[in-house]
Design goal:
Layout (H helix, E strand, L loop, with lengths): L4 H12 L2 H10 L4 E2 H8 L3 H13 L3 E6 L2 E6 L1 H18 L11
Antiparallel strand pairs: 1-3, 2-3
Length: 105
Amino acid sequence: MKQGLNEICYGFFATLANPTRLAILERLQDGAMNVSGLAMLLDQEQSMISHNLKLLERCGFIASERRGKEKHVHLNREIIGPLFELVEHHAGKHCVAVDDCPYDL
């Protein structure tokens, strides 16, 4: 591993290791959404969604744009698409059943 890559990997995976952020990414697979729509779908306070969106955007997992007064966010499909495919492939090989998953936290 390249020197310094450890810190990059830690930041990458730490950003993803949050149920709210993963739920946001999962919802955005269906298309762009505004912040209030995400908050309603995920039954979270809008401030909590906004906080998590900032982290996801800072890492390049999502991008945002203003449409009038609303902020709309969408996936960076170049990164998240292959990442989710890798996770699904790995889970298919190593997680026979959800109850059997070695990552049960």
